[in-house]
Fold these 2 entries.
Entry 1:
Amino acid sequence: MFEYLYDHYSGALYGVASRIISKESVAEEVLHDAFLRIWERIESYDPGKGRLFTWMLNITRNLAIDKSRSKEISRDRKTGDISNFVHSVDRASPEIQHVDAIGLKEVLDQLPDEQKFVVEYLYLRGYTQSEVAEEFNIPLGTVKTRLRLAMTALRSKLKIT
Amino acid sequence: MNVRDYISSGILEEYALGNLAERERLEVESNLAKYPELRNELDAIEEAVERLLERAAKTPRPELKTKIMSSLAARSKEAIVIPLPGSGVTIWKYATAASVALAITSAALAYMFWNNWKKAETNLTELIAQNQQIAQDYNVVNQRLDKIEGDLGIYDNPSFRKVVMKGTKAAPDAMASVYWNESNNEVYLSIQNLKQLSQEKQYQLWAIVDGQPHDMGVFDGDMKGLVKMKPGAGIAAFAVTIEPKGGKESPTMETMQVLGNT
């Protein structure tokens, strides 16, 4: 049962952790702690409040963000050119196939730049909406509107109705 | 509450991100329970995020899985085996440990059953859909078979005469045939080779009786098998012309495609 969860979701969750925290050993530690927490709290997961993946994602993301704010990691998620992150995934350990990351780029490139930006920061870099608003001087309402537009577009690209 | 406005406010996206404050979160949850439409919308949003992040997946080193599995194993041992020195409360500690272990196991089992049930439900939905598709295909095939059997009855029936209509100068490659039953006047048409027409045009069959053309009905060039046309008696020849959709009262001779004497 636990193995099933791990095999199905570790890739997507590790993708999230490793984009928030660039240091591999720390990202692995986050995934480790996240899975222990997921397993400990699995009985508190309520399907009425959302999908299992969302629940696991939020646990992982929160741990990664907490870790990135702790002293051992100097907010390195704030550095680095955002437009390169898809390529940086591609370049990582060559023995692992990152076919999916290519599909990601294709999907994101179909969005207008300002929507792509919001999706990248909120979903892939683990920023909150207020963080994006403050750091890049975009009104919070605009961030929200762009997210809504981006998600509507993404759903049609991904054929989800 | 206007559900459309609520959805377009983007609050469900925020909810799925886990960014809402406690009070707002509870409000969304109570709305979700009230309006199934919100539930569906949230599910679609979450699915989109899941698909997106699947595409952004990064496979962790295999060693990490082993490490996590052994941490888990160690942790569940801690939960179950609690070393206790002999004392009055020992029995209660053991009982507590046992009930915690039981609670964990039953939660895991409940989740497993729930998961299996979901899977079974998905499989069932797929099977029902497949079944409907097969039933539909079967009906289509059945109808075609009926049609072919009906056509065969006419080809085989000696009361029907086959009249082959050959291409005219305007369309040398064109060819069509008529099956005509002189005893009950039934007329069937079969297309061998007629070109595709534009949306506004149709073919029209004519019967020449006493030197005068009689309308036998219109048809499209892509008809398969035999097409029943209007009945006719004393026919000397059949011909097909191209006419505006719906046909005309008298034939446009310049567009005659095929012609055959009986």
Entry 2:
Amino acid sequence: MATFLLEVGTEELPAQFVASALQQWRSRIPADLKAHFLEADQIEVFGTPRRLAVLIQGLPDQQPQREEEIKGPPAQAAFKNGQPTPAALGFARKQGVEVSDFELRPTDKGEFVFVRKVTEGRATPEVLSELIPQWIFGLEGKRFMRWAEGDLRFSRPVRWLVSLWNEAVLPLQLENAGTLVKSDRLSWGHRVLHPDPVSIPTAAAYAETLGSAYVQVDPDQRQATILKQVKSAAQSVRGQAEIPGDLLSEVVFLVEWPTAVVGSFAAEFLELPPEVVTTEMVSHQRYFPVRPVGQSSVQDHGLLPYFITISNGDPGKSDVIAAGNERVIRARLSDGQFFFKADQAIALADYLPKLETVTFQADLGSVRAKADRIQQNAQMITQQLTQPLSLDAKTIASIDRAALLCKADLVTQMVGEFPELQGIMGEKYAIASGEPEAVATAIAEHYHPRTAEDSLPQSLPGQVVAISDRLDTLVCIFGLGMLPTGSSDPFALRRAANAVLNIIWSAQLPLNLKQLLQSATARFTQTFHTLTPQRVASKPGASQTGSSPQDTLQIQLQDFFLQRIRTLLQEEHHIDYDLVSAVLGETDPDYTQRALEDLLDLLTRAQFLQQLRADGTLGTLYETINRATRLAKQGSLDTHTLDPAAAIDPAHLQQASEKALYHEIVALLPQTQRASQARDYALLVQELVAIAPRVSDFFDGADSVLVMAEDPNLRQNRLNLLGLLRNHARVLADFGEVVKS
Amino acid sequence: MHFQNVIAKLNQFWGDRGCVIVQPYDTEKGAGTKSPHTFLRAIGPEPWSVAYVEPCRRPADGRYGENPNRVQHYYQYQVLIKPSPDDIQDVYLDSLRALGIQPEDHDVRFVEDNWEDAAVGAWGVGWEVWLDGMEVTQFTYFQQCGGLDCRPVSIEITYGLERLTMYLQNVDSIFDIRWNDHLTYGDVHLQGEIESSTFNFEASNPETLFALFQLYEQEAESLIGRSLVLPAYEHVLKCSHTFNLLDARGVISVTERTRYIARIRNLARQVAQLYLQQREKLGFPLLKAAQVQDCATV
């Protein structure tokens, strides 16, 4: 058993690449070893900004001897009259065996030639030296580079290689044009704390040897060190550290020998919005902010005038390092102060004209034009909501104003410097400009949710503007024909549509999405008629389908939303696949249109069905309603008629069971109408459950009915009875899509 | 250390390491990279080592001299070495030592930062160098220039002279930098900074600038047509600076903006190709010189 070490020494790698490379090695290396009949006791990967390493313990000296069986040609083709054919001879030659080594064995497909081959295991170091170049250059990452005169490509230049098989150097070399990097036992320690090479005596001594050269190679250990130091550094100034996960994992790969250093800044800077101060610290300087003990979030409360930086320098020089960092944050915060003051020299609304210099999308013009479209979208949403939510004039005005101003902060100096503060600065500047608080809040909220995990806008104006902004992006980008495909969704249109749906559902907004899309697509095709590719296709003579550009756009958007609805219902609301189909209809326009017109009702029906499945009711209904639905297909009754008077001729009702069912449906009608109007699906289901026994009698009772009777009048009546039943159930869902549970 | 001494030290340091020390190029530009000593010389197979101070103009960054960290005219110290040497990071750390900054006394970090200038079809990967949290230098391995692959790859090192000097002198405003024994950076540049900011944002005449852009562009095209590489490139720089002035003035609409950048890039690409052809026609003279030198040392 042996221990093997590979260290790839580089110039400083991007933090993200180191993390991703180690992840790739964690899965690739064991798989490669296994594919080469090698197994190790333990595989550990290490990484710092200047090195990627893997330590493999408990490797066998060589691969095991292997016996392989290789299938050859069919016996019939291998031998003619007892003599080997050219095919047999060719096979023997290829496998390096004699025809006399052939075994003939029956298989499912007749008798075949087999040979057994014994392969000796190769020495493990030999196998490793073939695998290693693929481990290094098989790594994937963004923005690889070439250096000097060669064609090698990697994240940053490779400068040395350590490759040890126990205590012996396993020779490897990388060639980059004229330059050779040869493996050795010499590694490099910390760039300034240990500028000389370090000799690694044996593979197993790797981490310990590098530790003595001021390099902590194990990222998990570095992370633990950093966490511990950050916490105690915060305590030293009677605060607690804010430790964003992204920042911590990045910092781990920015240093080889971490030391937490505390610095301070003038308390006057705390008059800046806390988001500005933390953005400067976290995004730009990779500092950990410090807040008073006992507070849970920096945004809600205050900060202390301290920061913690993870230095890669000499722990003994922390004072100098702190002083240097203090000057940097002071300059940055002064900048912030300057921007904050300068930005407020004019009112937020006065930034609108400057939005004309910011591109939204090359063909779609400026963000200023987008703001107008957001405002128009918001107005039509407001129109839909005014009556059902009894909106007052003040709320309506706030929505309108917020829609117009929501992008104005993009041209302020602060957002120019810190784009991640978009919306947040808009809120602050709106307040400073004397805008109503509801407007300010909506400006900040309209960017939510910024990620799949982010919170949704809480205020109604925030919700309306958030939807309006995303609808505009969806309509415009679809209008340009730039539909998302596969993994390519550069405008994050899926996320935008998901946000629209989630906001509507979570805030219970009674919106008709279909109508919103119609108005928006109509405006788009009018405004951008020279752009729409569909427009070209629909010019006289070019048109094949006869559909207008607006119709095409409308259908594309509807289909896209329907896909998102399906996905969200399944993945986020945990509705079973078949039940989603039952409420949404696979291709049934009745249901898809109804869904787009009334998303709240759709979710209610889906969740109700799921509940019926859980409590067993669906099983009861399935037997009767599903069977009726299937059979009714043979009839000609449309899917809307509910009134028996319009479908049944009582004169042709013969048997008691069909008469009973008829009377039940007559009695059901007012109940279904009530349920449909009040969306009281529990009432409908209660009634359907109640008549289930009559349906069973109709199908299978002592007086059961032959639905497909010879007499067309009888048959029509009976099919229509089932059709009516189906239609009543359709008020809730298409039971034909329900799968027996 | 005075501002002028920082420059002198860097000249001494890089001169000693084989760089030709050239002087600022007399056409307005936004960055040292746009000097032909870098932009053109990074193209093609010929070795090249150069260092120089470059005044940079970024009209939109003007703050009327009121912001201690931001100005529309400042200096970069630029080094370009082709092919990139294997020990370039160590050499760079030595240059800090030459300035009196001992890396072992500080937290010096090479933090990922990639560079791209779409207007001249150039990009590279590298780092910004942090000295106790302050970005003092930009390090870039050039991958493409004027849309052409860089072979071999050059390394570009750009020092922010004001930042570095502010650090060395422990001052918090650019204008407080001591240039020599009796003058500050403010004495030399503050009034100009105020006036230029006024020009960039208020006094420039957009119609004149639009007309100039057109004239410079026509001139560049005609010079490209006559294969006059350097004069053509100078006019591309003039286009680029005029565009920056228009941009600062806020008179370029969105659609125009994209078009202007595309027009500049198109010219820059043509000049880059023309330069490569010209050097090839000349038989890549610096390549021969380098080979002769190699033989001599053997």
